[in-house]
Amino acid sequence: MQVIETLAIPHGDAPLGEEQQQQAINAIENGKVIFLPQLTFKLTALEQRFLSPNYVDPKAKNISFDIHSHTLCGVQGSPNDKQQLQAMMKRFAIQARQLVEHLFPHYQTALEQARTSFRPVQVSDRKTSYRKDDKRLHVDAFPATPNQGKRILRVFSNINPQGEDRVWRVGEPFENVAKRFLPQISNPPPGSAKLLKLLKITKSYRTHYDHIMLQIHDRMKADETYQQQAQQCEVRFPPNTTWIVQTDQVSHAAMSGQYLLEQTFYLPVTAMQDPQRSPLRILEKLTSRSLI
Q1: In a 3-state reduction of DSSP, which class is residue 139?
Q2: What residues have CB less than 8 Å from 130, skipping those under 6 apart?
């Protein structure tokens, strides 16, 4: 089960040849995890103190940063702490953007930068409902934030200072997942998408694609037999390494690890080199209908 594509890139703005860029885009669109073992995000001496779960609001599991509004959420601490955390996360957001643009110049004009997150809480200790339990295999879909078919591309960096790996499970190809769970999914009630938006339960209109993806996400996590028996493998990401994955396509579960930085991007399907490899087009092929 070949799920990892390793690339030797020492820093995010390193010059890349066309062959390496083509290798990267083929890997990401084919549902692989791009692993960058030489690429690290370095904290300053002052930032080292943030390697503690004490800066996360107890009601949140992560600290998030919006580069467009320059706001932090899910954080506690002094005004000075918050200012320095914001600077750290903004620096990561900028470096992640540079990395993605260098690796995938084909995406550059269409790429939408979303939230940045800092995850200082130990994954294996987190207690939550099965729907929010990221230790269960799943593909990403968001109840309140429909993405209407756009790809979810994420950059992760393990900044753990104690030598602890970030441990994932990576599952079977998306089309296999879809074929298994699609027969269990019924159509949403008529008018429900408009009502959800009107009541501000969702931030935008939940398309039929979003409905299916959310159902797949929930049913994957709820199915104990699937969690145990589905084709999968363990992948370990050591400290001071970076990886990139499209989490709407790659079935994954975060089993353990602490201190992670993550940047999310959205990408329209039409900006892909091969849109037929997207979850949207795969689901449309399997359902024989337009989903957005």
Answers
A1: coil
A2: 136, 221, 222
Cα four-point dihedral sign 243, 246, 251, 255:
positive
Contact 21, 265 (CB under 8 A): no
pTM score: 0.95
What per-residue string of b and e applies to 58-92 under the rule 16 or more CB within 10 Å gives b?
Answer: eeebbbbbbbeeeebebbebeeeeeebbbebbbbb
Task: Answer for the pair 76, 59: CB distance below 8 angstroms, yes or no.
Answer: no
**What confidence tier does 162 reach under pLDDT thresholds 50, 70, 90?**
very high
Q: Which CATH number fits domain 4-287: 2.60.40, 1.10.10, 2.60.120, 3.30.70?
A: 2.60.120
Per-residue pLDDT tens over the stretch 167-179: 999 999 999 999 9
pLDDT value of residue 214? 97
Cα separation, 279 vs 153, in Å, equals 13
Q: Label residue 74 by pLDDT band (50, 70, 90).
A: very high
Would you list the domain boundaries of the chain?
4-287
Tens-digit pLDDT profile for residues 212-246: 999 999 999 999 999 999 999 999 999 999 999 99
The sign of the CA dihedral 19, 249, 10, 113 is: positive
Closest by CA to 54, choosing from 93, 85, 91, is 85
Spatial separation of the C-alpha atoms in residues 215 and 184, rounded to whole Å? 9
SS3 259: coil
Q: Are strands 112-119 and 252-256 parallel, antiparallel or unpaired?
A: unpaired
Q: What is the C-alpha separation between 229 and 258, in angstroms, rounded?
A: 27
How far, in Å, CA of 26 to CA of 49, rounded? 39
